[in-house]
TrEMBL record, chain A:
Belongs to the acyl-CoA dehydrogenase family. Residues 235-383 form the Acyl-CoA dehydrogenase/oxidase C-terminal domain. Gene3D superfamilies: Acyl-CoA dehydrogenase/oxidase, N-terminal domain, Butyryl-CoA Dehydrogenase, subunit A, domain 2, Butyryl-CoA Dehydrogenase, subunit A, domain 3. This is Acyl-CoA dehydrogenase. The lineage of its organism: Bacteria, Pseudomonadati, Pseudomonadota, Alphaproteobacteria, Sphingomonadales. One of its GO terms (biological process) is fatty acid beta-oxidation using acyl-CoA dehydrogenase.
TrEMBL record, chain B:
GO terms for biological process: carboxylic acid catabolic process. CDD domains: ETF_beta (cd01714). It holds the Pfam family ETF. It comes from Sphingorhabdus rigui. Residues 23-210 form the Electron transfer flavoprotein alpha/beta-subunit N-terminal domain. This is Electron transfer flavoprotein subunit beta. The keyword Transport applies.
Length: 388, 248
């Protein structure tokens, strides 16, 4: 058994670390100030362009995209290291193109869709969004009400979607809709590639989130989509969607490791410096316990996340592992960041330290892409045979 | 023209070193190791000379443990053409210089560019010893390097300014901090580095005795600075300075 990363994957991780330290960490104070001013935690267009130019120059785009569309075709184990490093900063940044929709398109796109949607996406020329949740239908896809009805060669989509990140700026949104009402739940669902300027694709409102990001609610009113934009097989949209969700969940676990590591690094640096009642915090057993607990849990998070990534690369079924790491890593990182805030005392309460933003991000990560309770339920029902 | 760039695997500059409890050295167990930053500058300078067409091949050489392969792989990913690893543990500057002299015999480079010192032991000896052993001219603490014909002009960082020396090649150069800003190895170059040649050698292959000539008596942490005091105003400051004998 060998737990070492391949040499080139370790070097990639080091490269991303340097990129994060030199490009993203210096932007943190700006990001925190903007977020505090109620302007959101996003990078400005200028900052985004500058950082994108550097990451592109370093060859960090399209890391897990297939080679035939210009990607590096890196395995999931390499991507965990990348996610870990990106997680160490409160500055929001993903290397283009964002992996989850990429993996979904890779799993389902046909020749024409690859050319028109996947290839420009891999080149970083387009931005995508995904519409799954609806008001009233989140973790339970059986409740999905948005429908797509065939009309000649086209599809007419009607319904509502919510919690959609980037819906306003995305060039296209991958939209889940029920195409076969009589099939049960997951078998009647299809995915569509819907361009932003499609008539009937209406962004209703922007919803500010506690981590300084925003999501959107959209309405589909007789939104007409050409037949060739049905992604994958009619009625079989659930599986590619699961591929997408799995990719995001392992990414979230990787970010959590980085976020927890940042908090641990901050605690280790601060504990010996801060003196109370004549002794440094590092001599206090509670503080020692926080640090030991953080280090141990980070070690566990790493092992289980790399194990899951390796199994994905081996083509194994990882539904259990994905649920385990999604719930465990986001929850553990939240606790670790919370301990760091506690240790920093008054400074831990401020908006001048990145800890509050890491904490708010993790607070959302415990909910989106399936709340911890749902993932725990998935793990338990497979063990108990209580699947309904 | 070939350029040889020796690179050393050292404790990462971001890591706070801790002395072993028995005082025998610095604890390196589970510590992040990287290429010596001055050597990164040396690699960068060699690559720039190759990109200008002055050099044709850049050869990275490391004398160190098996793991120094990682350091050489980094040099290859930055752009070096091939690498040589001479496997030896705990070698001292003189032994390193002797091995490098033999590598020079074999490769006949026009330049050897070294970091001025390694950030682990701060010896600042290898480049100078190599120049002495081979009888080649040396330009240490380089701030700028310009090759013209069979000469290399090196502006050296000296007390109070820069001193430019002209050296007949083959010559030895050691890099200072301001010579350049080393590039990062981009991902495509990291991938290419996998297939670049990395030769493994031993000191015996070069007939060099690397047994230590120095004995480390004790390694201790630097003394902890005691906390300062705050004074109310300038008068109090002057009085305090007089009291401790700094001002008359």
């Amino acid at each position: 058994m060998n737990f070492e990363l391949a040499e080139e994957h370790r070097m990639l991780k080091d490269l991303v670390r340097k990129f994060v330290d030199t490009q993203l960490v210096p932007l943190e104070s700006e990001v925190l100030a903007r977020d505090t001013a109620g302007k959101g935690s996003y990078l400005t267009k200028d900052e985004q362009a500058k950082v994108d130019a550097v990451s592109k120059d370093l060859g960090l785009w399209g890391l897990d995209a297939p080679e035939e569309v210009g990607g590096m075709n890196l395995p999931m184990v390499a991507m965990v290291g990348v996610g870990e490093e990106l997680g160490r900063t409160a500055t929001p940044y993903t290397l283009p193109p964002d992996s989850p929709n990429l993996r979904m398109m890779m799993a389902a796109a046909d020749e024409k869709q690859r050319e028109h949607y996947l290839a420009p996406y891999v080149r970083g020329e387009t931005i995508s969004a995904i519409g799954i949740s609806e008001p009233g239908a989140g973790a339970d896809p059986q409740l999905m009400k948005t429908t797509a009805v065939q009309d000649g060669d086209d599809w007419i989509i009607n319904g509502r979607k919510i919690w959609i990140t980037k819906a306003d700026e995305a060039d296209f949104t991958i939209l889940m809709a029920v195409t076969d009402k009589n099939a049960n739940g997951r078998n009647g669902m299809s995915a569509f590639l819907v361009d932003r300027d499609t008539p009937g694709f209406n962004v209703l409102r922007k919803i500010p989130m506690i981590d300084g990001t925003a999501t959107y609610e959209i309405a589909l009113d007789d939104c007409r989509v050409p037949g060739w934009k049905l992604l994958g097989t009619r009625g079989q949209g659930f599986l590619p969607m699961q591929v997408r969700l799995g990719t995001r969940r392992i990414e979230m676990a990787s970010w959590s490791i980085g976020m927890a590591q940042r908090a641990l690094d901050m605690m280790v640096e601060y504990a010996p410096q801060r003196v109370t009642f004549g002794k440094p915090l590092s001599s206090r057993q509670t503080v020692q316990n926080w640090i030991a607990d953080a280090a141990t849990r980070i070690h566990a998070m790493r092992l289980m996340t790399y194990d899951c990534a390796w199994k994905i690369d081996e083509g194994r079924d990882t539904r259990q592992e994905i649920s385990m790491i999604k719930s465990y890593c986001t929850e553990a990182a939240y606790d670790i960041v919370d301990h760091a805030m506690q240790m920093f005392g008054g400074m831990g309460m401020t908006r001048e330290m990145p800890l509050y933003l890491l904490s708010n991000k993790l607070r959302t990560m415990r909910i989106y892409d399936g709340p911890s309770e749902i993932h725990n339920w998935v793990v338990a029902r497979d063990l108990l045979g209580t699947r309904e | 023209m070939k350029i040889i760039v020796p690179v050393k695997r050292v404790i990462d500059y971001n890591v706070k070193p801790r002395v072993k409890p028995d005082g025998s050295g610095v604890d390196l167990a589970n510590v992040k190791m990287s290429m010596n930053p001055f050597d990164e500058i040396a690699v960068e300078e060699a690559l720039r000379l190759r990109e200008k067409g002055v050099a044709t091949e850049v050869i990275a050489v490391s004398i160190g443990p098996d793991k120094a392969q990682e350091t050489l792989r980094t040099a290859l990913a930055m752009g070096a053409d091939r690498a040589i690893l001479v496997v030896a543990e705990d070698v001292e500057p003189l032994a390193v210089a002797k091995i490098l002299a033999k590598v020079m015999d074999e490769e006949q480079p026009g330049l050897v560019i070294l970091g001025k010192q390694a950030i682990d032991d701060d010896s600042n000896q290898t480049g100078q010893m190599l120049a002495a052993l081979t009888g080649r001219p040396q330009g240490t603490f380089a701030n700028t390097v310009n090759v013209s014909g069979d000469e290399v002009h090196v502006a050296r960082e000296v007390d109070g300014g820069l001193q430019t020396v002209a050296l007949k090649m083959p010559a030895i150069i050691t890099t200072d901090l301001r010579l350049n800003e080393p590039r990062y190895a981009s991902l495509p170059n990291i991938m290419k580095a996998k297939s670049k040649p990395l030769a493994q050698k031993t000191p015996a292959d070069y007939g060099v005795d690397v047994s230590p000539r120095l004995k480390t008596l004790k390694v201790v942490e630097p003394p902890v600075r005691s906390a300062g005091i705050k004074v109310a105003d300038v008068d109090a400051l002057v009085a305090k300075l007089k009291e401790i004998g700094v001002a008359a």
